[in-house]
Amino acid sequence: MKHLILCCVLVLAGCNGCSEKKDVPGHYTDVQAHLIEANKKKHADETLRIKEFITENKWPMQETSSGLHYWIYEDGGGEQATLGKRASLKYVITLFDGTECYRADENNPGTFVIGQDNVETGLHEMVQLMRVGDKAKVILPSHLAFGLTGDSAKIPRDASLVYDIQLLALN
Known about the structure:
Chitinase A, domain 3, 7 strands, 3 helices, single chain, alpha+beta
């Protein structure tokens, strides 16, 4: 019995050493600071490219707090999109160089439940700014689109996307 108690005390003492907070090595802190700075630069460069693209195209876009840029160029006047509604969309997705990535039309629309389905974060945000029938030009920065990895098919890593979108219906 004495041996069992002694073993328990030793195990508990050893576990206590595991839970103590250790100092983070300086190398880790340096790497973390470098990654933060690199990410800030990447974001600033992408923001500059987006603004240059908007200026070149002379689009009167608005910007949301997330960095999404949009221009509703045709007012459809229909029902306002809201969370939980299933949106049906006609769209063309392109890169800044004009390369078409994806397309959906009236006969085969893109559909998703707003705020729930697994589509680009920026698409959830944008559709909520629209009414049925609206047509819009939208620029999703990479962090609101496919991010660091792209979609491993047609959209490259770190790509800003241009949508020409129409909200066809809400259900």
